[in-house]
Automatic annotation (TrEMBL), chain A:
InterPro entries: Beta-barrel_TonB, Beta-barrel_TonB_sf, CarboxyPept-like_regulatory, Plug_dom, Plug_dom_sf, TonB-dep_rcpt-like. The keyword Transport applies. Residues 121-213 form the TonB-dependent receptor plug domain. It comes from Flavobacterium solisilvae. It holds the Pfam family TonB_dep_Rec_b-barrel. The lineage of its organism: Bacteria, Pseudomonadati, Bacteroidota, Flavobacteriia, Flavobacteriales. Residues 1-18 form the signal peptide. It is found in: Cell outer membrane. Residues 299-663 form the TonB-dependent receptor-like beta-barrel domain. Gene3D superfamilies: Carboxypeptidase-like, regulatory domain, TonB-dependent receptor, beta-barrel domain, TonB-dependent receptor, plug domain. Belongs to the TonB-dependent receptor family. Its main location: membrane. It is a multi-pass membrane protein. This is TonB-dependent receptor. PROSITE patterns: TONB_DEPENDENT_REC_3.
UniProtKB/TrEMBL annotation, chain B:
This is Tetratricopeptide repeat protein.
């Protein structure tokens, strides 16, 4: 028993003897004291909170080498190895966390949408509640600065670039055919319904070295990482039906979305400018499957789309209309796996396969083309600290295209190509401080068809000038293989090139955002040819060039007036190019010098309704009048479209949605088609190119069935 | 034999010492919180969590304090940092104690905190996430008064917007008050809050 007491005594005295005093001061980077920081020895109760002078002291019963942890909200947590016996009156400096909300971000050229984005210009909801967008992601983006609305085409035209200068990526993997198939002067839509996407980033220039083969712009769409709940959505619309369903089990979830669209009943009721034999109809579906691993996420995205229409197209050069009968089948599959490895490594790998088939009847002739495209991608990211990250990876693009033209006189012409592009890139993200950050990257790519290798450097910097304002600068060199229409006849061409220089200012406070951007873009090696249209016997060269410069402004306010959100965007562009078969350097016909969009959404609680109004205005676009001496020297009248949308909550899960585009019935003219030859009076006659219909009316009923009675499809309208 | 006794005594002593230290720590931290010192309380809970690596309660309270702070309009600028802190604490607590209905209720509160930051953007997604937690919690602990009450309270919040009938939710709140009367927390430090709020909510029902 004696021994027992001895032991206890020994331990007690040992404890008393081993009391070590720990003390010091916690300061920030500017040597100002931090009050309220938590200082403790890891794995023990021993610790203290710093006082208003940043001072702390406490005693500990531990001995030897220990880990001292110092933490404070919005600062980086510090762990230091200390010897408890002599850690007295030391000074500890905490660095502000660059992950905090008010840290600088590199934003030049980019619009982010979605909750993960720190500065979200557009919300996922906006795509669908913007009047006139009709659930089309591309139409919603056309209300942002830097884009030109080209009503007869429907695709994205960015900063004086052609529509195919924008590449679309789903979960980081390229989509070779992002738009529905169409014919001249019938606008298309993006293939992707907003239903399955949670985040979006739209870059109008100066983007990361991770993305290549795009001269002007990239659109990055991300499928949802997690599904919130099981539910079924039913849509009944004047133009068709839709059904969506989500299932969850264990670590898996699957969502699918399918739609049948048929414009025939609608077009019987509402007069059309175009002469349809068979209006547009399509059956489409998308599905996302997700599986969570302990440290990773696997996603499989698949989409198919079968569409057809039959139209008689007018032409000034022919007294009879040309019948275009188009059948398009499209399939896209994309699989990706993302994993967090040890030591702050992150792995991403994925692949896609896309198949597009068009069968086009042109009067008595027909064209059939097939495109197989694939993208393999691998990316590794290492975070050395919160402040330094390195990303590198490799891409492999495979494209196989073939086309056959069959005339009724037994004449067949076949064309096509196989192209393989291998690319590798490296990029580093550095925070020099919470106010100053940069991104530096380089991309190397090799195209085996064109037998060329190009190096594209990219750089951007951002500096925060005040609590809410920051400047960014970006430079990048971009290349893209010539488009399909040229490559199928001429594989001796080389890639087209563009250099971007961007200066951006961003101000963001209390859910109000102001963004101004000025840019200069220089094009070189653009493809030229010497015939009326590009054809098998054209002589192609890379002798074209061009430039685009301009400035853009965006003001978005979500907070000044309760329940009202609105944004105003304005773009000015000055651009000229000498490409295609242009005789000289001029502004191309898809560019309007001034574009202005005003979008507003007003939630009226009493009526349980959301009212949305969008007005899009563009100044006149150039067109070529062969009766005049100068090429492309005339301009159309300006374009205006005022659209209204009204969503009414019948009950929490049932919504009635009504929308009308071009309420004022403005007679918009996109351009003119001129005759190839003069008439008897020596004048080239012309025909207006107008929308296929001046107005579009839409009525839909959307019903959600889920356990969570608050959920509805306001997201998807 | 002597050695065994000595060793046993040593362990008993050190365990007792640790227990007391835990109890003093928890009491002190809870009273700091009660005195309106959330930062100090969080700091102390963090120290307790660092020593008690298998106890979910310190992390639970870190999550609770920071979630509540995130709701305070005064903390608007810091809200994201507070929510992040709360979410990390919930993650830690869940690792220690999976399938814990109390932590699920807390997780739903953290989601609600995200929701109120920008209801127009976050509303749909985070109300779904919060409801999912309430349903899971209800399946595990159908008679936990906090689960019953918090779910009903959250649903009333949504009903105000949609104009749905709140009568069934009010009945649930009344039921939760009965459950509170018989609820016994495992220890003095286990969650035992909610009766006052439930009484208050029931008043607003009438």
């Amino acid at each position: 028993m004696k021994t027992f007491y001895t032991f206890i005594l020994f331990f007690l005295s040992f404890t008393v003897l081993a009391q070590n005093e720990i003390s010091g001061t916690v300061l920030d980077e500017k040597n100002k004291p931090i009050a309220g920081a938590n200082i403790y020895i890891d794995g023990t109760y021993d610790g203290a909170t710093s006082d208003e002078n940043g001072k702390f002291s406490f005693s500990t019963t531990t001995t030897g080498n220990q880990t001292l942890v110092i933490s404070f909200v919005t600062y980086e947590t510090l762990s230091i190895a200390i010897d408890v016996a002599n850690y007295k009156n030391k000074t500890v400096k905490l660095r502000e966390s660059v992950n905090s909300l008010d840290a600088v971000i590199v934003t030049a050229g980019t619009f982010d949408a979605g909750e993960k984005a720190r500065i979200s210009v557009l919300k996922p909801l906006d795509i669908v509640t913007t009047a006139g967008a009709m659930g089309d992601i591309v139409s919603a983006l056309q209300t942002l600065p830097g884009t030109n609305t080209v009503g007869e085409d429907g695709r994205l035209f960015v900063r004086g670039g052609e529509a195919d200068e924008t590449q679309t990526f789903v979960d980081g993997i390229r989509v070779a055919q992002p738009y529905g198939a169409t014919t001249a002067n019938v606008p298309t839509r993006g293939r992707f319904s907003p239903f399955l996407f949670s985040g979006m980033s739209f870059s109008t220039g100066g983007y990361s070295a991770e993305y290549g083969e795009a001269l002007s712009s990239v659109l990055l769409l991300n499928t949802q990482d997690e599904m919130v709940e099981e539910k079924t959505d039913i849509s009944l619309m004047t133009v068709g039906l839709g059904l969506a369903n989500t299932q969850k089990w264990g670590k898996n979830s699957i969502s699918f979305n399918t739609a049948y669209i048929n414009l025939e009943p609608y077009q019987r009721l509402i007069p059309q400018n175009a002469d349809w034999n068979k209006p547009f109809q399509s059956l489409s579906g998308e599905a996302v499957y997700r599986h969570d691993f302990e440290n990773g996420l696997f996603k499989l995205y698949a989409a198919f789309d079968a569409s057809q229409f039959d139209i008689n197209q007018e032409s000034i050069n022919s007294t009879t209309k040309t019948r275009v009968d188009l059948n398009n089948n499209n399939f896209y599959l994309n699989a990706s796996y993302k994993a967090n490895l040890s030591n702050h490594w992150q792995l991403f790998s994925g692949l896609s396969y896309g198949y597009g088939q068009n069968k086009i009847g042109l009067d008595v002739n027909d064209v059939e083309n097939n495109e197989h495209s694939s993208h393999l991608k691998m990316r590794l990211k290492k975070s050395f600290s919160d402040r330094v990250k390195l990303t590198f990876g490799a891409d492999y693009f495979i494209t196989k295209f073939d086309e056959s033209f069959n005339s009724n006189e037994d004449f067949t012409f076949k064309s096509g190509y196989n192209a393989n592009i291998a690319a590798t890139y490296a990029e580093t993200d550095i925070f020099f401080s919470k106010k100053f950050a940069g991104k530096l990257g380089v991309r190397l790519s090799n195209n085996d068809l064109l037998e060329e290798t190009v190096v594209s450097p990219r750089a951007s910097l951002a500096y925060k000038v005040s609590k809410s304002g920051q400047f960014s600068l970006a430079y990048g060199s971009f290349t893209q293989a010539p488009r399909q229409d040229y490559l199928k006849y001429a594989d001796y061409l080389s890639s087209e090139k563009a250099d971007h220089y961007i200066l951006n200012f961003l101000y963001n406070k209390n859910r109000k955002l102001f963004r101004a951007e000025a840019y200069y873009k220089k094009y070189s090696d653009l493809v030229k040819f010497d015939t009326n249209v590009s054809q098998f016997d054209s002589q192609f060269t890379n002798a074209g060039s061009g430039y685009a410069k301009g400035f853009e402004m965006l003001w978005r306010d979500n907070s000044t007036i309760k329940n009202l959100e609105y944004w105003v965007s304005y773009s000015y562009i000055d651009t000229q190019r000498d490409y295609k078969n242009y005789p000289t350097t001029v502004t191309p016909n898809f560019v309007a010098n001034h574009s202005l969009s005003v979008v507003s959404k007003w939630w009226i609680n009493k009526l349980k309704s959301q009212l949305s109004i969008t007005n899009s205005f563009s100044s006149g676009r150039p067109y070529n009048n062969p009766n005049e001496a100068n090429f492309m020297a005339s301009k159309t009248k300006s374009y205006n479209n005022l659209s209204l949308g009204w969503a009414y909550l019948l009950s929490q899960q049932k919504i009635l949605y009504v929308s009308v585009s071009n309420v004022l019935a403005t007679q918009n003219v996109f351009g003119y088609e001129y005759a190839n030859t003069v008439n008897t009076n020596g004048i080239y006659e012309r025909r207006e190119i107008r929308p296929t219909a001046d107005q579009f009316f839409f009525v839909g009923f959307f019903w959600t069935i889920s356990d969570n009675k608050k959920d509805n499809q306001l997201n998807n309208l | 034999m002597k050695t065994i006794i000595t060793i046993t005594a040593f362990f008993v002593c050190s365990m007792l010492a640790a227990q007391t230290q835990y109890e003093t720590g928890m009491q002190k931290a809870l009273s700091l919180w009660g005195e309106g010192k959330p930062a100090e309380a969080t700091a102390l809970f963090e120290r307790i969590a660092s020593a008690e690596k298998t106890n979910w309660l310190p992390s639970y309270y870190i999550g609770m304090i920071n979630a509540i702070e995130a709701f305070n309009p005064k903390n608007r600028e810091k809200a994201t940092a507070l929510i992040e802190k709360a979410q990390n604490a919930v993650d830690n607590a869940t690792l220690i104690s999976p399938n814990n209905a109390e932590i699920m209720v807390l997780q739903a509160m953290v989601y609600t905190a995200v929701l109120v930051q920008d209801p127009m953007t976050n509303g749909m997604k985070y109300s779904g996430l919060a409801m999912e937690q309430y349903y899971k919690a209800l399946a595990i602990a159908p008679n936990n008064p906090r689960v019953v009450f918090s779910k009903a309270e959250f649903e009333i919040g949504g009903a105000k917007w949609s104009g749905a009938d709140t009568k069934p939710m009010c009945e649930q709140i009344a039921k939760s008050i009965e459950l509170f009367a018989t609820f016994k927390p495992e220890t003095a430090f286990h969650p035992n809050w909610g009766l006052d709020r439930a009484n208050e909510a029931l008043k607003n029902c009438k």
